[in-house]
Amino acid sequence: LATNIAETSLTIDGIIYVIDTGFCKQNFYSARAGIESLLVVPISRAAADQRAGRAGRVAAGKCFRLYTSHAYHTELEAQPVPEIQRTNLGNVVLLLKSLGIDDLLHFDYMDPPPHDALVMALEQLYALGALNHKGELTKTGRRMAEFPCDPMLSKMILASEKYKCSEEAITISAMLSVNNSIFYRPKDKVVHADAARKAFHHVTGDHLTLMNVYNQWANA
């Protein structure tokens, strides 16, 4: 069953049949709402061709597409939406600023990001203290750029030094950086899964719940 991984150059021996559902999960960021969501969306024709290519990599094979030829030619886009045009640009802006690139609005991108998403990222970094009123990188911003995580999490880690809770902040940041949900909830065992999840619940919210998950795993 083909997923996004099948669109890479990864080759798995023995794969001669591929089932292509025509859908994939992608992150989309709404600059207006400030929310990032994982959505199920149709794949592109380029992605479909890559998935089909997995079937004949090591031997003759077949790809079974769960959509019509008409849908392939008329409903699927030729190429997928570039990631820079659908995700939070906070990390990108912080990296470019740390490399000495100041004029981000006129920078020669391979795929130009949405203007509102770029402005939102600049405003967010200013609010976090990573940029000054001139849009220049601050000392705090340079330290934040060294962390391989979202700018909000980077600022939390730096602030934790003041409040003597760095270990907890790093743990929570790591748990929040996981792309997929850490709680497995199979459809045929929903009641059991929800009951098991309550063992990690913390009344103050999700952040300490995630820390409970990590601590119980570390102590197991």
Automatic annotation (TrEMBL):
GO terms for molecular function: ATP binding; hydrolase activity; RNA binding; RNA helicase activity. GO terms for biological process: mRNA processing; RNA splicing. InterPro entries: HA2_WH, Helicase-assoc_dom, Helicase_C-like, P-loop_NTPase. Its EC number is 3.6.4.13. Residues 1-100 form the Helicase C-terminal domain. Keywords: ATP-binding, Helicase, Hydrolase, mRNA processing, mRNA splicing, Nucleotide-binding. One of its GO terms (cellular component) is catalytic step 2 spliceosome. It catalyses: ATP + H2O = ADP + phosphate + H(+). Coiled coil: none annotated. It is an enzyme of class 3 (hydrolase). PANTHER family: ATP-DEPENDENT RNA HELICASE (PTHR18934), PRE-MRNA-SPLICING FACTOR ATP-DEPENDENT RNA HELICASE DHX16 (PTHR18934:SF83). This is RNA helicase.
